[in-house]
Design goal:
By secondary structure, this protein is an alpha/beta fold. It is built from 20 helices and 29 strands. The strands form eight sheets. It has an eight-stranded mixed sheet with strand order 5-4-18-17-16-6-7-15, with helices on one face. β4 and β5 form a beta hairpin. α4 packs across α17 (about 465-475) and α10 packs across α12.
Length: about 650
């Protein structure tokens, strides 16, 4: 009979307690002698522990640390004491995770069903190269948006060299739908330096948890925390960032950009002017947007006395501040840009500056579109889908859209470290190594030179390495030296080029823009998100260490919960820990209730990163917040998913009540 996870954890806890009693108090001498007798197999002795240098590629920080090895097995880790990070501690668990993909698998059943069978690597190479040779223009690749691995970069370059359509999969629930900086300046890459920010004004962005560079966020917080008034958070919910800010400005859900406009208007009234490098036409459009702020509506949206906003404006007007905001409508992104320009935070040497483009010299123009645009092309001009270290069936909102796309495609290939939701629906599943399992090179730019960082294997995996698979593909495809001249990572690093921004920055503000409140989809309560550190990362898969840290301020590890205000809980007859169902009319998930005054009465909060339905640590019947979100186009046609309402219904005795 199989054990449940709860039974296993209870058994483990009882063993620990029993061991402590037996060894410490000697109340159970028989058990104590048995434990003392436990040792290595007969004829063997444990080797002396060894500490091996390693590096983490989980984010752009590339933190160095030491692995502890015993008999060749990684049993611990010693992170950099100056750069503590939860990702470092989880790596040993990732090596031996029960959901690891360790060999190439081919499907022998229908999609979404077992079984798969291990298959020789050469069979996969033959199938892949046949697809790439016969119909490269109908074979779409989906890569992570952010990666510093040169091995990944070579696979990406090969896809471009063959003429395949290439798409980017970032973290769509966190990143903006389209960067207003790109639309306003036509420069495609921007670098956000929290390290340079004189202060941080957050319009609903839980940056202390969700910033892509975890170490940079922690450094910025340590630097600004002793400076009174330097950390300001505007939002309806008391998030972790709001808890640690000097000033929290509560407001109605969805009105954070409006409060930002109010702050900008008050800054202008106090004499704050944009930098002089704006042209006359640009400055006129800028002032016109700020003067169109509906002041009465903004004041009504506040859930605090307007004097609090006056104090914020006085502080920010003296020192400036970097303005941040989460994913929203494109019009909301314009507000973030306007505030950063007004507070002189955009430009060379400032917190937001044009970034360099580090790229391999490929012939012709290289274009990569957001992964969501691929959905409309599957079955029309795309037949084959190749996912490289991405999991859109969990990371994207309304994953049913991606499920339909995978069912429509003629062939699906998933390069994956774990048996994710997307991998389980692929026809071919190819293992990817973790940091420390295969040699790789990470390239970073320090502002003047490229800095390659070699990551050596300390625990070689029992699977084909991505660089070896790439060489096999190159041998079979034989691309010309003009289109793809690299046969190794080291040669590609030597050919990397850095493209600097050229020409003056020119802003193209929308001429007829005015702020309008968001139109929420569905009925019921506004859906808010919690963004715990590490777990919104697309690379995430359930790991015991991360799950034990998940939700430290609500103490709800291992499961998906819903935060409900006490007034709403009383109306629904919900108590702490009750089971409930959250639905949007077409999808529903099962959650546990956490009664918390940190969420406003007209909203509920769900966390990102949990709710996996497959895998060793999945909870049957649960689901993720992405299941409840229906993407909708804003006035510019850009998809966004921050305007959703849901209903909540208690399960069990007394169930059936819903709240609207």
């Amino acid at each position: 009979m199989g054990w449940t996870r709860r039974q296993f954890l209870r058994y483990g806890a009882s063993v620990v307690v029993g061991t402590s009693v037996a060894r410490g108090l000697r109340l159970l001498p028989t058990l104590g002698r048995a434990l003392d007798a436990v040792g290595p197999p007969e004829g063997r002795a444990y080797t002396t522990q060894a500490w091996v240098e390693g590096a983490c590629l989980g984010c752009l920080s590339a933190c160095r640390f030491q692995f502890r090895q015993t008999d060749g097995r990684v049993v611990g880790i010693r992170p950099d004491p100056d750069r503590p990070c939860p990702w470092a501690y989880v790596l040993p668990q990732m090596f031996y995770h029960p959901d690891r993909v360790t060999t190439v698998h081919a499907r022998v059943g229908s999609q979404g069903e077992a079984p798969w069978k291990p298959t020789p690597t050469r069979d996969f190479i033959q199938a892949l190269t046949r697809l790439l040779r016969e119909r490269p223009h109908r074979t779409a690749w989906v890569f992570p948006k952010h990666t510093s691995s040169m091995t990944y970069a070579l696979w990406r370059a090969l896809a471009h060299a063959l003429g395949c359509p290439v798409f980017q999969a970032g973290c769509p629930l966190v990143e903006p739908p389209e960067d207003a900086l790109v639309r306003a300046t036509q420069w495609p890459a921007w670098r956000w330096h929290l390290d340079r920010a004189p202060a941080v004004l957050s319009l609903g962005a839980d940056w202390l948890q969700a910033w892509e560079d975890f170490q940079m966020a922690q450094r910025t917080f340590r630097r600004l925390r002793p400076m009174p008034g330097a950390l300001v958070h505007v939002g309806p919910r008391l998030s972790l960032t709001a808890m640690h800010a000097h000033r929290w400005v509560p407001c109605e859900p969805g009105t954070e950009p409006l409060i930002g406009l109010l702050i900008g208007r008050l800054l202008r009234l106090r004499g704050r002017v944009p930098p002089k490098d704006l042209s006359g036409e640009e400055a006129e459009a800028f002032h016109r947007a700020l003067e169109a702020v509906p002041l009465d509506e903004a004041v009504r949206a506040l859930r605090v006395h307007p004097a609090v906003v006056d104090a914020v404006v006085e502080r920010l007007g003296d020192q400036g501040a970097l303005t941040l905001a989460p994913r929203g409508r494109l019009g909301d992104q314009w507000i973030v840009l306007w505030l950063n320009v007004l507070l002189d935070q955009v430009g060379p040497g400032r917190p937001i500056e044009p970034d360099v483009l580090i790229e391999l010299p490929l012939p012709g123009a290289v274009e990569e579109r957001p992964a969501d645009e691929l959905l409309e092309r599957v079955g029309r001009d795309v037949d084959v889908l190749i996912f490289f270290d991405t999991n859109p069936l969990f990371e994207s909102p309304a994953p049913r859209r991606w499920q339909k796309a995978l069912e429509t495609a003629e062939a699906v290939v998933a390069f994956s470290t774990f048996w994710t939701e997307t991998a389980r629906r692929a026809d071919w599943v190819v293992p990817l190594p973790l940091p420390g399992e295969a040699r790789d090179v990470q390239v970073r730019w320090d502002g003047q030179t490229l800095q390659p960082l070699e990551v050596r294997p300390i625990r070689p995996g029992p699977f084909p390495r991505p660089d070896a698979l790439l060489r096999d593909c190159l041998d079979a495809l034989s691309p010309s030296a003009e289109t793809f001249p690299w046969d190794s990572v080291d040669r590609a690093v030597a050919d990397l080029r850095v493209r600097q921004p050229s020409g003056p920055m020119a802003y193209r503000w929308p001429s007829d823009w005015q702020w309008t409140p968001p139109t929420y989809q569905g009925e019921g309560l506004v859906l808010l998100w919690d963004l715990p550190a590490g777990l919104p990362n697309p690379w995430t898969w359930p790991h015991p260490y991360l799950y034990s840290l998940y939700g430290p301020h609500v103490r709800k590890p291992w499961q998906i919960w819903v935060e409900v205000h006490p007034e709403t809980a009383r109306a629904l007859h919900l108590d702490e820990g009750d089971e409930a169902e959250v639905s949007n009319g077409s999808a529903r998930i099962r959650v546990r209730v956490h009664v918390a005054p940190t969420t406003p009465p007209d909203a509920v909060t769900l966390p990102l990163g949990v709710g996996h339905r497959v895998g060793a640590f999945a909870v049957p019947g649960e689901g993720s917040v992405g299941d409840l979100i229906e993407p909708t186009p804003d006035e510019s046609g850009v998809l966004h998913w921050a305007s959703q309402k849901v209903r909540i219904r208690p399960l069990g005795p007394g169930g059936g009540r819903t709240v609207s």
